[in-house]
From TrEMBL:
Matching CDD domains: PBP2_HisGL1 (cd13591)
Protein name listed in UniProt: ATP phosphoribosyltransferase
Notes on activation and inhibition: Feedback inhibited by histidine.
Location relative to the cell: Cytoplasm
Family matches, as SUPFAM superfamilies: GlnB-like, Periplasmic binding protein-like II
Keyword entries, A-Z: Amino-acid biosynthesis, ATP-binding, Cytoplasm, Glycosyltransferase, Histidine biosynthesis, Magnesium, Metal-binding, Nucleotide-binding, Transferase
Organism: Oerskovia enterophila
Keyword Magnesium: yes
Taxonomy of the source species: Bacteria, Bacillati, Actinomycetota, Actinomycetes, Micrococcales
UniProt entry tagged with the keyword Transport: no
Catalysed reaction equations from the record: 1-(5-phospho-beta-D-ribosyl)-ATP + diphosphate = 5-phospho-alpha-D-ribose 1-diphosphate + ATP
Coiled coil: none
Annotated function: Catalyzes the condensation of ATP and 5-phosphoribose 1-diphosphate to form N'-(5'-phosphoribosyl)-ATP (PR-ATP). Has a crucial role in the pathway because the rate of histidine biosynthesis seems to be controlled primarily by regulation of HisG enzymatic activity.
Length: 284
């Protein structure tokens, strides 16, 4: 059976479970379950701490896992990113008291507090900066005020928490992270198992179904080319003649975030009866 590690709690957990469920896999109903077998799909799920998942994958204890890119890089484990999953996006940045630091080279010789010690040390080294990294488990925003650090490095979304602590971000982002599917580094691209290939196709199908919709519309036959230029689909749109031969029916996949803009443009071209349908699942 394919063994997959899934976050057992935190911001990665629920979206990961929802995505796997949409992909057709059985998921636990009780959060106290640590192991769940899905014999119909020849898969076994292990619910682990998000920070530990890369370690289990890297040692080959499990065949694949879902975690954050930041956690993968910070683990130092022998695991690699297999595919992006499109949720739990975040930006990892440095921050310091307002008006004190504007560039990374000014961190030279200072103390940097973070929960991602390996990630930060590697980033500083790659940029030729020598600093003392102070490891903290949990929130680091108070580290400067409490006197144990001069700079912090942490995940930033809106920056509200940092501003509340009198801090501001500076320099370029250390990392842009999101949820990723990972596999052991020892497994090359051309040696991926059939089970992992199936998982990959299913997750890609979920991502596509979330990003695209089906758009159907009727359009005068002489305006078909102008209409399909707006909705070319993934390969090519389906064009069918209607009972009234002066009209044609068109079906195409379009990006969900462009739906209303395309409907307006199609209406201007001359299309009518424009309908949009969600995609539950797909394979490309």
């Amino acid at each position: 059976m394919l063994r997959i590690a899934v976050p057992n709690k935190g911001s990665l957990s629920e979206p990961a479970v929802d995505m796997l469920r949409e992909a057709g896999y059985r998921q636990r109903r009780d959060t106290r379950e640590l192991v769940l077998a899905d014999p119909d799909n020849d898969v076994e799920f292990f619910f682990l701490r998000p920070r530990d998942i890369a370690v289990y994958v890297g040692t080959g204890t499990v065949d694949a896992g879902i975690t954050g890119r930041d956690l993968l890089l910070d683990s130092g484990a022998a695991a690699v990113e297999h595919m992006q999953l499109g949720f739990a996006g975040s930006t990892f940045r440095y921050a310091a008291p307002v008006g004190t630091i504007t560039s990374l080279d000014q961190v030279e010789g200072l103390r940097v507090a973070t929960s991602y010690e390996v990630l930060v040390e590697n980033h500083l080294r790659a940029n030729g900066v020598t600093a003392s990294v102070v490891h903290l488990d949990g929130a680091v925003e108070s580290a400067v005020q409490l006197g144990i650090a001069d700079v912090v490095a942490d995940v930033v979304s809106t920056g509200t928490t940092l501003r509340g602590a009198g801090l501001e971000v500076f320099g370029d982002p250390i990392l842009k992270s999101e949820a990723v599917l990972i596999r052991p580094a020892s497994v090359s691209d051309d040696a991926v198992s059939a089970g992992l290939e199936t998982l990959t196709r299913r997750l890609l199908g979920v991502l596509t179904a979330r990003q695209y919709v089906l758009m159907d519309y009727d359009v005068p036959a002489h305006l078909v080319e102008a209409a399909v230029a707006l909705t070319p689909g993934l390969e090519s749109p389906t064009v069918s003649p209607l009972h009234d031969r002066d009209w044609a029916a068109v079906r195409a996949m379009v990006r969900r975030d462009q739906t209303n803009k395309l409907m307006d443009a199609l209406y201007e071209v001359g299309a009518r009866a424009i309908l949009v349908t969600s995609i539950h699942a797909c394979r490309l």
